[in-house]
Amino acid sequence: MKILRKGITTGTCAAAATKAVALWQSTGNCPSSVKVIVPAGYEIELEIKKLNNGCCGVIKDAGDDPDVTDKMMIISKVRIFNENGLITYKAGEGVGIVTVDGLKVQKGEPAINPVPRKQIEDELRKIIGDKCAEVTISISGGEEVAKKTFNPKMGIVGGLSIIGTTGIVRPMSEEAMKDSIALELQMKKAQGTDSMCFVIGASGEKSLNQLNIRIKWITHVSNYIGAMLDVAEELGYKHILIWGFGGKLIKLAANIMNTHSHVAEGRREILCTVAALKGADRDAILELYNSPNISEAIRIAKKYNLHNMWQDIVEEASKNCILRTHNKIEVAVVFLENDSTILAKSNNYHRVLKELEQ
């Protein structure tokens, strides 16, 4: 098995670029590289790019992690003042501004998280001592790339975030995505809701609009339904509506809480088991077992008068999700057909929907 190469966070890049600017201003020479201590506790050396207007940049290396910021340049500009005081931060081009409450950075501040701020300050203090300074961090092309991230949904506008808790990027893209979704749930909880609609992706949210169902609190959870139910339980949510296509969500009935195909399948087995329990004969079960997709399974179920089997499956899915939260959250589940019409909905659907409707 290939050992995946680690990378560096945007926070580490910003700290190194800031240190280089301070050294340039204090010595008159821009260093070709600087050493910085990462929060994980060890020292690394990074190459410095000398830029115009007294700025320095560091090229982000994400290692083997599929990070959207890989190979982008993190740029720092520093104004140092003679009086002692605080270090403040400004968002340059490509760095976002926080526009909502509930995140780690206060509303109105640049989206530079607390750990990177400490990294920057620790390195800068080595050069300027107790003097106050204004640090402006920029990311070339950051505003456009940010559109591909969770930032706009999380209330960070105009660019990317400077993030990182260890200073090092470990190539675990699924963990990074789950962390981002969990942060969104935390932020929305801080805004005052204890109810949420989980959708798998954009098509699920689009179907809500097509059916004229107006829900304010929506989170895209990708395939990580179980993990996000765990987060919701920890945060104190009370009502969750899981809304999506039956071809994915049917797995919940077998307690498969990560719906990605590389984790588990089992859809045919679920269909056949429920059909058998409802008295289906061998021909019907065989056709269901060989059905290539949910649309064909729906057609076969109707052919053999098993159309109400979907209600049994959605109820089992709802029950398993409630058990996942130790009965602390009422979880309703809706299965959609591929044309975005509702195939089945758990009996508690209207009760949960009432908590979510605008």
TrEMBL record:
Q: Which InterPro entries match?
A: CbiD, CbiD_sf
A Pfam family: CbiD
The pathway that the record names for this protein is: Cofactor biosynthesis; adenosylcobalamin biosynthesis; cob(II)yrinate a,c-diamide from sirohydrochlorin (anaerobic route): step 6/10
GO terms classed as biological process: anaerobic cobalamin biosynthetic process; methylation
Report which superkingdom the organism of origin falls in: Bacteria
Stated EC number for the protein is 2.1.1.195
Q: Which GO terms describe its molecular function?
A: cobalt-precorrin-5B C1-methyltransferase activity
Query: Which reaction is recorded as catalysed by this protein?
Result: Co-precorrin-5B + S-adenosyl-L-methionine = Co-precorrin-6A + S-adenosyl-L-homocysteine
Which of the seven top EC classes does this enzyme belong to?
transferase
Alphabetized, the UniProt keywords read: Cobalamin biosynthesis, Methyltransferase, S-adenosyl-L-methionine, Transferase
Query: What family is it from?
Result: Belongs to the CbiD family.
The record's annotation in PANTHER family points to:
COBALT-PRECORRIN-5B C(1)-METHYLTRANSFERASE
Q: What is this protein called?
A: Cobalt-precorrin-5B C(1)-methyltransferase
Native species of this protein? Clostridium cellulovorans (strain ATCC 35296 / DSM 3052 / OCM 3 / 743B)
> Upper lineage ranks?
Bacteria, Bacillati, Bacillota, Clostridia, Eubacteriales
Q: Could you tell me the gene encoding this protein?
A: cbiD
